[in-house]
Write a structure and sequence with these properties.
pyridoxal phosphate, 12 helices, Aspartate Aminotransferase, domain 2, EC 3.7.1.3, Kynureninase, 4-stranded antiparallel β-sheet, PyrdxlP-dep_Trfase, PyrdxlP-dep_Trfase_major, 2 domains, binds pyridoxal-5'-phosphate, 13 strands, Aspartate Aminotransferase, domain 1, globular, alpha/beta
Length: 423
């Protein structure tokens, strides 16, 4: 049986422990929702203060040059590239995840329309994140294509000659189940299908090798494990083999080969720069860079591989403690037991009361979240583990709170059973 002092001992022996000090975390909070909104880096306040007072307040428009504002999409892009196995200058920061998905899906669709016009189907996973499905639906309507939704285990056998694009999120937002990106991409390519990967729950959470896995297009989120702040800009990547040929539909001036020539005709910039559309949001970019830097700070300690090793230990400890200490309360772990198929989260389910249990935990300072199920998928109590700032004792204490909430029936109180606008 694991004890709390075992967990304290593991924290003392953890080489990554000092990285927690990079974050401004409230004293009494156990934050297990970094998969939805990463915690705030301490450095962000000072950086934004300087940006406001000096770069914007004093230097005004000159800062596009003197403070390098214009290069931020590339500079931060190259930092994120180090975390996801991309080469320098194959990845940029721009817009939101949803908008970038529209760009890359269209780019992939355009390539397929030129190569194999009979392919007019986009395949995705039925439980993919809704915005991904909605964006694909919208594009299909525009193109007269079909979006086909399958269960994860049905996908490989259903990539027929009518399929143009396979669009997947590597780590499922509900269950935490993780696809093998290289294997899935190889299968897709064998069937003549291009791949679009959403790394929203991967970037900064699990090691990713974009170039090595031979994916075609990828996008990812800045405000989850990259700690960029609420609504942070997202990123977008293209495999070098498409870099010269792809085109995207939001052909704005920042993606023009020479934006400051103010030419009346669009000519795309070289490579990944053509993904840019309008003027980058500099305040949000600066905050994102502080967030990305907190992940890069793990490089001297072994980088993503070390973070992943700790994340596996944290998720395994949580699942094991829930099974040991909360047995008999109807809670079941739905995330894969095999760490190689699991992202940095553990999801529980219960036939009733999931929402209220999460609310009762939040009232105790243990922040997770709840995702409602439907006729095919169960309700989910979701707990994300960010190895940069989550301690082993946090895991122990969180499970102890969960146990108390269950044993005392605290979750049945009316105040925990009222739904709020954002779950
Ligand atoms: C978080 C998330 C998004 C978020 O998209 P936004 O445009 O930032 O709202 C998209 N896709 C997936 C899979 C996500 O997990």
């Amino acid at each position: 049986m694991t004890t709390r002092s075992d967990c304290e001992f593991r924290d003392q022996a953890d080489p990554l422990a000092p990285l927690r000090d990079q974050f401004a975390l409230p004293e009494a909070t156990i934050y297990l929702d970094g998969n939805s909104l990463g915690a705030r880096p301490k450095a962000t306040s000072e950086r934004l203060q300087h940006l406001l007072e000096q770069e914007w307040g004093h230097d005004l428009i000159q800062s596009w040059n003197t403070a390098g504002w214009i290069h931020l999409p590339h500079r931060i892009g190259n930092k994120i590239a180090r975390l996801v196995g991309a080469r320098d200058n194959d990845l940029v920061v721009a817009d939101s995840t949803s908008v970038n998905l529209y760009k890359v899906l269209t780019a992939a669709a355009r390539i397929q329309r030129a190569r194999s016009p009979q392919r007019r189907v986009i395949v995705s996973e039925r439980s993919n994140f809704p915005t991904d499905l909605y964006i694909a639906e919208g594009l299909c309507e525009e193109l007269g294509w079909t979006l086909r939704l399958l269960e994860a285990e049905e996908i490989e056998a259903n990539l027929g000659p009518e399929v143009a694009v396979l669009m997947l999120t590597q780590v499922n937002y509900r269950t935490g189940r993780m696809f093998d990106m290289a294997a899935m991409t190889a299968t897709a390519h064998g069937a003549g299908v291009l791949t679009v990967w959403d790394l929203a729950h991967s970037a900064g959470a699990v090691p990713v090798d974009l170039t090595g896995s031979d994916a075609d297009f990828a996008i990812g989120c800045g405000y989850k494990y990259l700690n960029g702040g609420p609504g942070a800009p997202a990123f977008v990547w293209v495999h070098p083999r498409h870099a010269g040929e792809f085109s995207q539909p939001l052909s704005g001036w920042m993606g023009h080969i020479a934006p400051f020539e103010f030419s009346p005709h669009y000519r795309p910039a070289e490579g990944v720069a053509r993904y840019l559309c309008g003027t980058p949001p500099i305040l949000a970019m600066a905050a994102l860079e502080c967030g990305v830097d907190t992940v890069l700070a793990a490089e001297p300690y072994g980088g993503m591989a070390a973070l992943r090793a700790k994340s596996i230990e944290l998720t395994e400890l949580f699942a094991q403690l829930v099974e040991q200490r909360c047995a008999g309360h109807g809670l079941a772990v739905v995330s894969p037991g095999d760490a190689s198929q699991r992202g940095s989260q553990v999801c529980l389910t219960r036939t009733e009361g999931g929402y209220a249990i999460v609310q009762a935990l939040i009232a105790r300072g243990v922040i997770g979240d709840f995702r409602a199920g439907d006729e095919r998928t169960p309700d989910i109590l979701r707990f994300g583990f960010t190895p940069l700032y989550t301690r082993y004792v946090d895991v122990w204490d969180a499970v102890e709170h969960l146990r108390e909430v269950m044993v005392s029936d605290e979750w049945q109180r009316p105040e925990f059973n009222r739904r709020r606008a954002v779950t």
